[in-house]
Fold this protein.
Amino acid sequence: MARTPRTTTRRTFLVRSSSAAAALALGATSMPAQATPESLAAAIKDVVGGASLRTGKVTLDLPPLAENGNTVPMTVTVDSPMTEVDHVKAIHVFNEKNPQPYVMTATLSPRNGRAQVAVRIKLNDSQKIIAIAETNTGEFWTASADVIVTLAACLEDPT
């Protein structure tokens, strides 16, 4: 008897892929992964390449003590005229101990009017946050801030 080939329906695919994802999640270790100093340095190098980081021009505003790591307010401001010939092209944010060292990149142009980004981020633990401003002339300016987190993000017990 000849066997007919089985076709996978969309429903079957979704059920199987969901089951596989759940199995991977349940099989994960109990300790969450953390970025290492090496992965942080590599992530920063991916952005700046061989250029040097200069301090100044960047202000990183974070609370020194965050009660809940699930929503930590952060504002990055860069001193720039934001003109066509002199403006901030991007603001990059990195962290020291979250599972991934890269937090975000905001792309800017002179039409933004000012180089400022305000967001809320998740923090896995007390750590250092690093902001890097990239200018249209290829310069990189940086600032960092330490944040103490009393209740880490992604680690709460739902019961």
